[in-house]
């Protein structure tokens, strides 16, 4: 992912760069600009996926840069890292399409919480569910696994023993965000046949189940409510492993994981699916020694 840092202070450019580098992503490309005018010239050629901009800069300030991007319809994600504290101006930026506003001085945790949803494509799964062109299947065509089968699939690694049990249906609670959201379909058709939802505690358990992640790292992720790169990658792999136990009885094929991202706010399409009952869903509690228990749900869409 290409990220452009825009600030007239070279010291602040360095601080923001260090904060981004601490996320541990190997494929990040970073460039810097000292004002909105220079940034706009770089953006037109380099096409970054994310711009982190100061507000108050010479020649062209941050809000002017955002409005210029909107006029040229460049479709670039932009967030502000700024001393600007006026509620009216912050709302102006959000209304104009800013993804977030992080106020200086800031700690890396705050910066990471703002940037991670974009790095991890948090809106992709939600946009797919909300897309009216995406078809949903008939529930009697999809077979969900039994509790025992799901348990065996989650326990493929000798590194950790995951215990699961059936629990009451999951509902999304504002104080529990973010949730991990996975969408399953088939390889040939633009359709969503099933979804998987895990709260953050469950996502951390799934993340450590494949190894390469310490229990301490999982504790920190649970406390800070933010998943580092390695845990997120492990979660995607675990959700991919579940493909083999999700079966389309009409097409006689297993489902395929289309995408898996973090969901950071309520979503009407997800909440509609969470109203399903009976055999159309499987809700389980996920437990492992040393970590807080989590909730995991599979639902036919």
UniProtKB/TrEMBL annotation:
<dbReference type="Pfam" id="PF00072">
    <property type="entry name" value="Response_reg"/>
</dbReference>
<dbReference type="InterPro" id="IPR052048">
    <property type="entry name" value="ST_Response_Regulator"/>
</dbReference>
<feature type="modified residue" description="4-aspartylphosphate">
    <location>
        <position position="54"/>
    </location>
</feature>
<feature type="domain" description="Response regulatory">
    <location>
        <begin position="2"/>
        <end position="119"/>
    </location>
</feature>
<dbReference type="GO" id="GO:0000160">
    <property type="term" value="P:phosphorelay signal transduction system"/>
</dbReference>
<keyword id="KW-0597">Phosphoprotein</keyword>
<dbReference type="InterPro" id="IPR001789">
    <property type="entry name" value="Sig_transdc_resp-reg_receiver"/>
</dbReference>
<protein>
    <recommendedName>
        <fullName>Response regulatory domain-containing protein</fullName>
    </recommendedName>
</protein>
<dbReference type="InterPro" id="IPR011006">
    <property type="entry name" value="CheY-like_superfamily"/>
</dbReference>
